[in-house]
Amino acid sequence: MARTAKTVVYNRIVFVFSLIGLVIAAYVTQSFLRQTSIVCLNSGCEIVRKSPMSYPLGIPVPAVGLAGYAFLSVLAFLRTTSSKRNLIPLILGMSAFGVVFVSWFTYTELFVIKAICTWCAVSAVNMLVIFTISLLMYKEAKK
Amino acid sequence: MNLTGESKFFIGIILATVAIIIGGVFFMSKPEKLLEKSELIPAGSQIKGNSEASDYLVEFSDFQCPACGAFYPQVKSLVNANKDKLSLSYRHFPLDQHKMAVPAALAAEAAAEQGKFWEMHDYIFENQAGLSEEMLLSAGEKLGLDKAKYEEAYKNKKYQEKVSKDLADGKRFSVNATPTFFLNGKKLNPVNFDDLKRSVEEELKKN
């Protein structure tokens, strides 16, 4: 897979959006762990934070996001160090898992918890952007 | 690892992100400022339970607000169950959209003049659906108040200033919905009654 000008730009976008996701997930995770209220546009964040559904297998949902975004950031960074590494499929795979995860959680929020947490919605859109760009990057690299 | 110009560019972004996170951690690790008891429960406040107790719950409420009505029986039983170690102060926060909220607050304060604030408080919440001017006037009689004295205080809005002060204090303490609770000076954000109960019980256990 070649490193074209376009894939470089795509990789930068993936990297920046992963870091944005990382900061959001870090903020929400600390609220989950410290049991402090989340600054939110509505009351949804508190309802979601206090729902047992937000802790699958005992793991707070934002902690999964934190790990996912951290992994994506590392992958995007590693891509800058060598063109030989075949990291694009890994980025695409990770972001695809991310999209599945945020879709599941958005569904859970809407139909089980019946509240929407603004930060989770922002993170879901963020992950969708990363996935779309990863897909474009994958196609571009395959050319 | 071969650091390209692109890698260095990314490292720059990472450092900026780390700086943002450190700034955020520093900002959030500052202890939350608690409100003073004397500010939350000024002299003349309506207090239930043990007024000397170290744990104190303050409720900013509106007699016409449905959520306040829903919290009422549960808060009442919570305070009754812990009446020796907890105090509850009721402060008025009548919302603009509730036209009977101020009259109800004035009626409760007029009843307080005869030592029956909590009886009136309970009566209003228990009959919240039928809240009206007539209902408030007849409540005086039902609670065995001195009718003339009660009506004079109510109709002349004798305690308007007190109600307005409660409302102004609430706004100053960032109250923007009812009911809003403060536990030992800290604003709570309960999503339901069980959540409030949990916070109160955890605080009671500390002492």
Automatic annotation (TrEMBL), chain A:
Chief localization: membrane
Recorded GO MF terms: oxidoreductase activity; quinone binding
Localization annotation: Membrane
Vitamin K epoxide reductase domain sequence ranges: 7-138
Transmembrane segments: 9-28, 59-78, 87-105, 111-138
Pfam families cross-referenced by the UniProt entry: VKOR
Residue ranges of coiled coil: none
InterPro entries membership: VKOR, VKOR/LTO1, VKOR_sf
Keywords: Disulfide bond, Membrane, Oxidoreductase, Quinone, Redox-active center, Transmembrane, Transmembrane helix
Membrane-protein topology: Multi-pass membrane protein
Annotated Gene Ontology cellular component terms: membrane
Family indicated by similarity: Belongs to the VKOR family.
Official protein name in the record: Vitamin K epoxide reductase domain-containing protein
TrEMBL record, chain B:
PROSITE patterns according to UniProt: THIOREDOXIN_2
Domain Thioredoxin span(s) in chain numbering: 32-205
UniProt xrefs under Gene3D superfamilies: Glutaredoxin
Superkingdom of source: Bacteria
InterPro entries on file: Thioredoxin-like_fold (IPR012336), Thioredoxin-like_sf (IPR036249), Thioredoxin_domain (IPR013766)
Transmembrane domains' residue ranges: 9-28
Keyword Oxidoreductase: yes
Keywords: Disulfide bond, Isomerase, Membrane, Oxidoreductase, Redox-active center, Signal, Transmembrane, Transmembrane helix
Record SUPFAM superfamilies: Thioredoxin-like (SSF52833)
An example molecular function term from Gene Ontology annotations: isomerase activity
Family: Belongs to the thioredoxin family. DsbA subfamily.
Protein name according to UniProt: Protein-disulfide isomerase
